[in-house]
Amino acid sequence: GLFTKNWFVVSYMMLLLSSPMIEASIKTCADKVLLCWVVLLTILNLFFGYYLREVNTNGYNFVQFIWLYYIARYLRLTQDNKINRFISKYGICFYAIASIILALLYVLFSYRWHTLDSLRWFAYNNPLLMLSSICLFMWFSHFNFISKFVNLMATGVFGVFLLHTTVYVQPYRNSFTADVFTQFGYPGVICEAIILFVTLCLISIVIN
User: What is d(CA 190, CA 102) in angstroms, rounded to the nearest whole number?
Assistant: First the structure.
């Protein structure tokens, strides 16, 4: 089907169905126990997943969503923790550092030693990618931000994802992006992404 082949939609539906059980398990444990669970899930997803590729090999699956759910709930329950407040305050700096390291290592390994598998290097369960995402999320979480324009655009974001990742559109999008990259390099790809996002977002808002 159109959406059953989309990993995000399927994984998100599975998470919604599982969330009552996850919440029930969280309510019965103390913060320290929940932290232990987060650590164990992190070892499971990083060592046995990202490194050994036995489970959750790239982060595009239900296991990744469960891991993120437990992390997010722990951060929410311990938001007044000194460490969490510190990360929330300087999260954008940690995000920038982790992202720069991630990009530089990719370029360094690709051009000086051997070409890396970009899909694996930038997989959702890459430790640096996870760290940078968490820091960015925590940095945004301490803002009291209200904007009607942002709320309007937000209603179309999921539609953008669905429209440009369907099995009917993806091959043409990839082919066109490859042509743009060949002719104009990364600046062309960035411009294409911006135009595509704005166009699809407007279509999604109109449909909603």
Answer: 19
d(CA 194, CA 188): 10
Question: What amino acid occupies position 200?
Answer: L
pLDDT band at 93 (very low <50, low <70, confident <90, very high): very high
CA atoms 104, 109, 115, 116: torsion sign: negative
- The C-alpha atoms of residue 41 and residue 47 are separated, in whole angstroms, by 10
SS3 142: coil
Average pLDDT, integer, range 181-198: 89
Q: How far apart are the first and last CA of the chain?
A: 22
Q: How many CB atoms lie within 10 A of CB 85?
A: 14
Residue 164 has pLDDT above 90, yes or no: no
pTM to 2 decimal places: 0.81
Query: What does DSSP assign to residue 70?
Result: H
